[in-house]
Design goal:
The chain is mostly helical. It contains three helices and two strands, in the order H-H-E-E-H. The longest helix has 18 residues, at 18-35.
Length: 65
């Protein structure tokens, strides 16, 4: 089984489908949590910034490129 998101989910998320956007966020949630850990503590601000950056990049993503 692949760890990649299906292109149909990515395409729908880029177009603004809320369920697909949620699927993308869920897919990257563990990675965001990992990056948000500092000295054994969870940094909620870092998590929010990373999630915002992911959403910003998602809506700028060009699937036709």
């Amino acid at each position: 089984m692949s760890d990649l998101l299906p292109i149909s989910v990515v395409t729908s998320a880029v177009e603004g489908d809320p369920e697909s956007v949620d699927a993308v966020l869920k897919h990257y949630r563990r990675y965001i949590s990992f990056l948000s850990g500092r000295n054994g503590h969870f940094d909620i601000e870092a998590s929010c910034r990373l999630e915002s950056a992911l959403l910003g990049a998602l809506f700028k993503f060009d699937v036709n490129r």
